[in-house]
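Severity: low
Component: inverse-folding endpoint
Summary: output formatting inconsistent between runs
Steps to reproduce: submit the following structure tokens with default settings.
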């Protein structure tokens, strides 16, 4: 609890204005924004883990290997992170004005937006033959502007007490309003550490996927725009310098000879040069290390998808719930099927690629 409280940050900024000039009889406006962020280390990874290095002894190098108990309970993953952080912020503004040449006031300009998100690094297996770790980052933006006015044709300004009463502890802890966009990034970084062979050959990989959801609806519900961009890369390195060292060098008393003969044997047989000596000459013409890399990138975008952004499917349900949006596999970039589509979609033109490109840059 001490660590939790020490990492709470609050911020608030406000700006109020009142003016008049030759054009405007009066101009009143205000804007304020603020937020709260929390950073913590739950410490559960230190208490709930399996020391597979001791359970499966593979040498001193793997003695500290650990397996963390969150799979297949996906919602528990953040509890095993070492640097979990969450934040929420808001931006509210309103402007009223009246021009001298008109008898009525200008239309009131209002905006009330909010965003929330969290991120953390995770690890499943570490310091073993296969290391598996990664990171997660989520952010969602929403619109609270409809709460500013009465729900009728007049659209009168509501009191602040009524607005905040609809936001806090009303059908939930916090009402963030109508979701506008949702974006999350998942990365998986596997590494292979084979006994003995990792001295000569190493292989590492990275998989990253960014999923986005946008609400384009203004009047007619044409569904939601979803998509993802993913990338996969892997690198293998062959350490030729270490490989050649097996065949001896310099004094070579404790080194292996390519033909298995000792120096004394060579002297007795009258040999002037061993295969190891030839290899020592040959290795001066080749690089110390050789690396081979492979990468692949894909982008998928779909319009007119029904349901919510998919947060519930990703975190809480083992099987896909259609009303919650795309499946976990789609959000991980492992499926091309986004979910059910809006009926009669061809009646409404949809352009989604520019929106998705913008959304993917937010993370």
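Observed output (run 2 of 3):
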């Amino acid at each position: 609890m001490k660590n939790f409280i020490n990492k709470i940050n609050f911020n608030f900024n406000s700006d109020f204005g009142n003016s008049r000039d030759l054009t405007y009889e009066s101009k009143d406006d205000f804007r304020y924004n603020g937020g709260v962020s929390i950073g913590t280390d739950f410490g559960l990874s230190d208490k709930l883990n399996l020391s597979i290095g001791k359970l499966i002894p593979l040498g001193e190098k793997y003695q500290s290997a650990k397996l963390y108990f969150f799979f297949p309970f996906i919602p528990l993953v953040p509890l095993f992170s070492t640097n979990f952080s969450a934040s929420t912020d808001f931006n509210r503004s309103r402007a009223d004005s009246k021009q001298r040449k008109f008898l009525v006031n200008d239309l009131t300009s209002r905006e009330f937006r909010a965003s929330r998100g969290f991120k953390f690094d995770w690890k499943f297996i570490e310091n073993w033959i296969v290391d598996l770790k990664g990171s997660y980052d989520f952010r969602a933006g929403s619109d609270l502007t409809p709460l500013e006015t009465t729900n009728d044709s007049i659209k009168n300004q509501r009191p602040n007490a009524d607005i905040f009463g609809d936001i806090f502890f009303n059908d939930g802890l916090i009402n963030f309003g109508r979701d506008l966009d949702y974006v999350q990034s998942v990365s998986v970084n596997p590494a292979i550490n084979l006994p003995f062979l990792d001295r000569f050959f190493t292989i590492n990989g990275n998989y990253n996927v960014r999923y986005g959801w946008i609400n384009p609806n203004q009047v007619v519900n044409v569904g939601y725009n979803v998509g993802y961009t993913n990338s996969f890369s892997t690198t293998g390195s062959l350490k030729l310098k270490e490989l050649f060292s097996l065949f001896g060098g310099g004094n070579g008393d404790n080194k292996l000879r390519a033909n298995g003969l000792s120096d004394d044997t060579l002297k007795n047989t009258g040999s002037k040069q061993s295969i190891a000596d030839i290899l020592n000459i040959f290795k001066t013409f080749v690089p110390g290390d050789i690396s081979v890399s492979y990468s692949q990138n894909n982008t998928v975008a779909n319009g007119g998808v029904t349901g919510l952004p998919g947060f519930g499917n990703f975190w809480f349900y083992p099987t896909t719930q259609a009303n919650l949006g795309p499946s976990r596999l789609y959000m991980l970039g492992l499926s091309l099927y986004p979910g059910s589509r809006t009926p009669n979609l061809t009646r409404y033109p949809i352009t989604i690629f520019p929106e998705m490109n913008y959304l993917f840059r937010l993370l």
